[in-house]
């Protein structure tokens, strides 16, 4: 994890946006009310404010990525289905610094909002991955909803790899649509002269110069990725508790870095499955032999068929009957 953090810092990726969360101070973040949503903003070189995009490297735990199928499209339209990923740092120093930065954002938002309570997001209480330690979870909805019609400036075309069947597009309305805040970029590093662009070999010197799209369906648990996120506070209202704000990490992009760990796990699972199949086959053979031993002993005994001449058979039967009667008289 630390190696990839340092490698990415050394690369000059011309189309990369965002700053490493491990190297950014929460004191440099400005909180702004964007009309019901508070956002963490950072300053541009000219002094203006822009939504802060923060990056962290980790190993994927759970993920829910596109494509969206027809059965799940309705869940997405109700914001029950999210584009979501959880990553763990396995104790790396850079990941823990990013984790601390994210935790500090709670206090930052609480100070900015003041009038209503803050519901802490998952990172503050620290969901713990049994193997990877502390983890961070970022997610994004598929639809932005508004009381007023959404403008064409806000709306975006749904990418084919997100909605290949048109299931989401059919559910869009003037007040619920795929907009700028719903866009998540699924990426990988590529470029001329980079062996890594075609092979998963972390020992190769990286000379990549740009990020390119990656099919979201290709991402797997235990891959090492760079996750980029924004930090927003969403207003909620409860009749019992009143108004409150929930602070969450909003997924902005996922950059594939290394699949070595995932490949090893897949190979191990295949070997385990193969052993289970072989053991099951042996058990089945053993059971079949046991069933044969305990089966009907007459099942495999062959007897001569009855002859065409029934007289001999009848005489034989009568002879046997006489023998039995004689024995009884004695």
Features:
2 domains, 330 residues, OB fold (Dihydrolipoamide Acetyltransferase, E2P), two-stranded antiparallel sheet
What does this structure look like?
Residues 277-330 are annotated as: Disordered. Residues 301-314 have a biased composition (Acidic residues). Helices cover 29% and strands 28% of the residues. The longest helix is centred in the last third of the chain and has 34 residues, at 260-293. The chain has 6 helices and 15 strands. The strands form 2 sheets. Strands 1, 2, 3, 4, 5, 6, 7, 8, 9, 12, 13, 14 and 15 form a 13-stranded mixed beta sheet that branches. The N and C termini lie far apart (100 Å). It is elongated and about 120 Å long. Residues 122-128 and 192-204 have low confidence and may be disordered. It has 2 domains: 2-258, Nucleic acid-binding proteins (OB fold (Dihydrolipoamide Acetyltransferase, E2P)), CATH 2.40.50.140; 260-291. With 330 residues, the chain is an alpha+beta fold.
């Amino acid at each position: 994890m630390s190696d990839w953090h340092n490698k990415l810092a050394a690369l000059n990726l011309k189309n990369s946006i965002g700053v490493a969360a491990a190297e950014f101070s929460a004191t440099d973040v400005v909180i702004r009310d964007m009309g019901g949503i508070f956002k963490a903003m950072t300053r541009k070189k000219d002094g203006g404010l822009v939504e802060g995009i923060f990056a962290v490297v980790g190993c994927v735990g759970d993920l829910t990525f596109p494509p969206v199928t027809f059965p799940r499209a309705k869940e997405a339209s109700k914001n029950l289905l999210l584009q979501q990923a959880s990553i763990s740092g396995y104790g790396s120093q850079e990941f823990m610094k990013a984790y601390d930065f994210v935790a500090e954002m709670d206090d930052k938002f609480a100070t900015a909002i003041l009038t209503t309570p803050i519901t802490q997001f998952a990172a503050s209480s620290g969901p713990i991955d049994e193997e990877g330690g502390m983890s961070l979870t970022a997610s994004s909805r598929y639809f932005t909803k508004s009381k007023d019609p959404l403008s064409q400036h806000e709306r975006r075309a749904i990418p084919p790899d997100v909605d290949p069947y048109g299931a989401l597009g059919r559910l869009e309305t003037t007040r619920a649509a795929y907009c700028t805040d719903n866009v998540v970029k699924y990426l990988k590093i590529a470029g001329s002269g980079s062996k890594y662009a075609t092979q998963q070999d972390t020992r190769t010197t990286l000379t990549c110069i740009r990020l390119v799209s990656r099919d979201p369906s290709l991402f797997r648990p235990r891959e090492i990725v760079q996750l980029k996120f924004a930090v927003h506070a969403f207003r909620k209202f409860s009749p019992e508790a009143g108004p409150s704000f929930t602070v969450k990490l909003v997924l902005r992009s996922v950059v594939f870095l290394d699949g070595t760990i995932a490949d090893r796990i897949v190979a191990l699972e295949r070997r385990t499955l193969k052993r289970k199949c072989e053991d099951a086959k042996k058990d089945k053979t053993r059971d079949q032999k046991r069933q044969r031993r305990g089966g009907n002993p007459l099942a495999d005994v062959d007897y001569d068929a009855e002859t065409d001449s029934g007289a001999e058979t009848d005489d034989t039967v009568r002879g046997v009957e006489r023998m039995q009667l004689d024995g009884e008289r004695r």
